[in-house]
Write a structure and sequence with these properties.
binds adenosine monophosphate; 5-stranded antiparallel beta sheet; alpha+beta; single chain; globular
Length: about 130
């Protein structure tokens, strides 16, 4: 797959400890931290530690251990932040902006976990 990972992206710098972050959870293959410009009362970014550009890159090339670890970490972040509907929370949205049409800014795969307020429609209609 023709993905080229830029190791100077800001999340790579966070993973190397060059930039601070507010860690929510760290596991063997995954880091979750608070978004620096939160769009909701809960806004956590979950990222793999491996060099994956975007979700499809991760889904196709990460090891099973990385994928399981990441997925379990997402569940744990939802538990830690109290957004799980099954546990009395009010729900959340998971977003993986990808590429140009997805308006991805940071080229290291990250899943946004947003919650703590009603989040509105999934996709705006303004630009068709
Ligand atoms: P995206 O448009 O999906 O690539 O989103 C990138 C996200 O990274 C945005 O929500 C930013 O607020 C967030 N972000 C950028 N720099 C940092 C940082 N140093 N620490 C935490 N979040 C960041």
């Amino acid at each position: 797959m023709p993905y080229s990972y830029d190791d100077q992206n800001i999340f790579a710098k966070i993973l190397r400890g060059e930039i601070p972050n507010k860690t929510v959870l760290e596991t063997a293959h995954t880091l979750a931290f608070e978004d620096i410009q939160p769009q909701a009362p809960v806004h956590v970014l979950v990222i793999p530690k491996g060099p994956y550009v975007c979700y499809d890159h991760f889904a196709q090339e990460a090891s099973e251990a990385e994928i399981v670890d990441f997925t379990r970490a997402v569940g744990e972040v939802c538990r830690l932040t109290g957004v799980q509907p099954g546990e009395g929370g009010e729900g959340f949205r998971a977003i993986a902006n990808t590429g140009a049409h997805g308006v991805q800014e940071v080229p290291h795969f990250h899943l946004h976990i947003l919650g703590g307020r009603v989040l509105g429609r999934m996709v705006g209609r303004a630009q068709g």
